[in-house]
């Protein structure tokens, strides 16, 4: 686990050590807590930049954690534009930073504009 | 849970598993209705009681008794016999009671004779310079991390803004031993003076007021640096947040931190009601849109669709639970399961309780009214985070003849990103209203249309 994580698990006597799963972020293996959202897992593993914005390609990271802001979009197992705060982390997930605007592929949203 | 078949029919469909949604479902089930509840999360609770059924003792202790009390309603919901569709993103609610949703990568639909929308609230946007930098989150977002994943900031954190949730999170962090670098409060002397006019009313809700005072005194005892009346808030940093700059008493200040939690209240999440073309009114006290409803939460002109909870205007978790029960009673009466007399006698104590719960709101709404500068930002500040449109861009569109939020889309794609104006909508309305010198009411809101949640073409093609 990265030492520079902005968020870390609560410390305390009665907190039970969580079971962990293995995921990959941009090719890097990470051991993260089971049963949490992908966004929470990545934040606790020291990932502080999730995507780059579509116009200026500046770094972005989770802001609302409840599906409102779409700042936490990442690519999960090849599917782009997943809201990482709404997806539960699963063993073996391969996650990638989402860079800039998306290409128009099958993953394109329907009727959004 | 057994798989649901597309086309299933219910007496009632509830959207959202917070206190309002669970209460509506429990109430209608108790009168014998066939009820389904759809929610995006894996477990009940909404955001206020998020993860309540799985919280460990340490988390329950840190989060406090009000959070822990959510377990009672969750238990009642679980034995109510409601069909609970977890992980279900509702992307369309039709005026006829059709619910389209995405679950496990599959698109499905069901039909309900009546619908209760309990999609709650979201944090009000806090558009200040640098608010798009990684490391800046809503205080509510940070609280979700605490509730859902036991995560807290690993270094001294800044809490900035105003409102009960900000101080509650501060209190919870103190209990968890999370160091707080500073609370930078935008509430100033004039707010206290204006709020004093509502103090008598608020005293009638003494337990709530006392709780607020307890939170503030805990922060004081915890020796958390507390700045009052902060203005000119700006997040510092180039690729990530490094600190917050602000002005207090004419003096420019700077506090370093890589985690900056912003909060200036919550607002109703009105995406569904707008998409249904329901009538909304601008609430100038809570500075948000609320749908027009009758005493049961029924949408004006949409007799089979109700709203319960914070989607009606911000009243808090306890008020939301009561509003859910009221909607549930009316739904049962319309379904012919109870008569008007039984409905009214069950509703009477609920209405008294609701009035009691709402008594503190005028005081809170005035005291923690978010500052104009933090809602209607300077030109350089990004308003639409998805498409990176600034307040100055929007003012430029107005100068060219743009009169409302929908037109900002054609002028500059404002509100056209994946969030579809959810986060920027209120800011866009207020920026245009200010630039045109008219009321937000006159400016209106985005024309929201389904899908409310992103659905891919592939998912639609695979409809069950």
From TrEMBL, chain A:
Domain 2Fe-2S ferredoxin-type: 19-101
Gene3D superfamilies found in the cross-reference section: 2Fe-2S iron-sulphur cluster binding domain, sarcosine oxidase, alpha subunit, N-terminal domain
Molecular function GO labels: iron-sulfur cluster binding; oxidoreductase activity
InterPro entries in alphabetical order: 2Fe-2S-bd_N, 2Fe-2S_ferredoxin-like_sf, 2Fe-2S_ferredoxin-type
Alphabetical UniProt keywords: Oxidoreductase
Official protein name in the record: (2Fe-2S)-binding protein
From TrEMBL, chain B:
Gene Ontology terms, MF aspect: oxidoreductase activity
Alphabetical list of InterPro entries matching this protein: BFD-like_2Fe2S-bd_dom_sf, FAD/NAD-bd_sf, FAD/NAD-binding_dom, Metab_Enz_Cyan_OpOx_G3PDH, Opine_Oxase_asu/HCN_bsu, SoxA_A3
Entry superkingdom: Bacteria
CDD domains recorded: GlpA-like_Fer2_BFD-like
Alphabetic keyword roster: Oxidoreductase
Residue ranges occupied by any SoxA A3 domain in the UniProt entry: 386-461
Pfam families (alphabetical): Pyr_redox_2, SO_alpha_A3
Domain FAD/NAD(P)-binding: 10-320
Protein name: NAD(P)-binding protein
Origin species: Pigmentiphaga aceris
Lineage: Bacteria, Pseudomonadati, Pseudomonadota, Betaproteobacteria, Burkholderiales
